[in-house]
Amino acid sequence: MGIEMTTSNLDRLMEEVKTLTLEEQRSLRDMVDGLLVKSSPKMTEEEFEQHLLKKGVISRIPPRIRDANFEANRKLIEVEGKPVSEIIIEERR
Q1: Contact 35/43 with Cβ under 8 angstroms?
Q2: Where do the structural domains in the chain lie, given as residue ranges?
């Protein structure tokens, strides 16, 4: 994917996307999201905190919680379905 898209190509593509049905737009978004996830390296929490600090989003990095019970019981959850932001936008319409 070394081809750089010119502004006119991007503008034309964005206009084409507007002609797609809502379901087609969602499928396209899912495909693009998948490409972005595959192409971007995963950051550790520490790297992400440093990134936010460099960008000025946060002014300091809070101390880490070093409670063994907390860490032992901490579990990642995976949620299926639409993002909450999408649900909110749909309900506002």
Answers
A1: no
A2: 7-92
- Between these two residues, 1 and 35, which has the higher pLDDT value? 35
Q: How far apart are CA 63 and CA 55, in angstroms?
A: 19
Asked if residue 27 lies in contact with residue 35, where contact means CB atoms within 8 angstroms, the answer is no
Residue type (1 letter), 67: D
The answer to whether the beta carbons of residues 13 and 24 sit under 8 Å apart is: no
Q: Read off φ and ψ for residue 41, nearest 5 degrees.
A: -70, 145
* Each residue's pLDDT tens digit, 45-87: 889 899 899 999 999 998 887 777 777 777 777 878 888 888 8
